């Protein structure tokens, strides 16, 4: 049994992975997974946002009136995302072009507000930071796995370097065009969820569906 | 077909926010177990979207875009980097008002939507609708049509997925695939179906 703080950090990475187990933050995860590099940057941007927003919301949790908490939380998150977006535009312009609106859509990523509501608004700053870090890494991990499959099998490359030589370039591999379609992201996620839930001893029963 | 009507049609069928751009997935997955709640959620999104997109349009046109403050004697000011936080503020405020109104006038609906009504605020489809509206560079009527169409398209998608998932209750999916996993597969198949509609060009 790991100490509680370690489990706050480690649980969301595999056991309670935010995408696979809680149904959070799927939207932007699919759009940026055609390439591994965009997926990694997206995961990093989300992790930073999540840590900072969790800590700041945890710091003001005792002074935050319940009736206006949503607007305050969202404003904090949106300001953090604007900072990250501007930083990306300043230091990694190409990457920010490729991520386009999806960095902005971190604001509406359910993980960020979900963790703020469920964890940071009732915990101390340090566990909140760990919770943000764990959830961010768990999210990035799922993005990276889906992106690796889509880039390697859909393009024959990994992080831009050729892994499987395409038939068009004189190699043998014929890329699977379907993996460029967003729908393929759903099937990959479904397989991932299936794997994770089968491995766990206590898959949550879902009588309604 | 042209003008607002075409915008409306395109937003519902061709550029469906849920199934072509994959926005609003969290809410869509969480609420699509029963058709009745799904339709309630869809109606909420239609209402919020139809209000927020035109409001955000006015905000962007007259306060935030480059040169928009010309009427105030500040033609060189470009506040467009503030659009994200202002759009979100507008959306959050409207959602909270809607929540209070539902609580007062339709308690059963309020009870069944539960925690997910506040999550309309973080529904990417709502913010995405406003962001796409800025990229469209249309006029006010266009933004109304786009907001209504985007909401209707999303409602259509969640109702369709809920219809399939309701029947899936009788299906015998593998244990680990039940619930979330099979829902992803249903969504993928629905998305493939909509690829066919996205190929349609009308007028």
- Output the number of helix runs of chain B: 8
Q: Please, how many helices of chain A?
A: 9
Query: Which regions of chain A are unreliable across 5 or more consecutive residues at pLDDT < 50?
Result: 205-209
Spatial extent as radius of gyration of chain A: 19 Å
By DSSP, the count of extended strands of chain B is 0
Keywords:
A: about 210 residues, mainly alpha, two-stranded antiparallel sheet, about 60% helix, about 0% strand, B: mainly alpha, 8 helices
Give a description of the structure.
- The complex is a heterodimer of chains A (209) and B (203).
- Chain A has 209 residues and is mainly α.
- Chain A has a domain at 5-139.
- Chain A has helices spanning 4-10, 27-31, 36-59, 69-91, 93-99, 101-104, 110-118, 125-155, 182-199, and strands at residues 157-158, 161-162.
- In chain A, a hairpin with a 2-residue loop joins strand 1 and strand 2 (161-162).
- In chain A, helix 3 (36-59) crosses helix 4, helix 3 (36-59) runs parallel beside helix 7 (110-118) and helix 8 (125-155) packs across helix 9 (182-199).
- The two termini of chain A are 33 Å apart.
- Chain B is an all-alpha fold and 203 residues long.
- Chain B has one domain.
- Chain B has helices at 3-14, 25-31, 35-64, 83-105, 107-113, 124-136, 140-168, 180-198.
- Chain B is globular, with a radius of gyration of 18 Å.
- The model of chain B has no long low-confidence stretch (mean pLDDT 80).
- The chains are: A mainly alpha (209), B mainly alpha (203).
- The interface between A and B is large, with 51 and 53 residues.
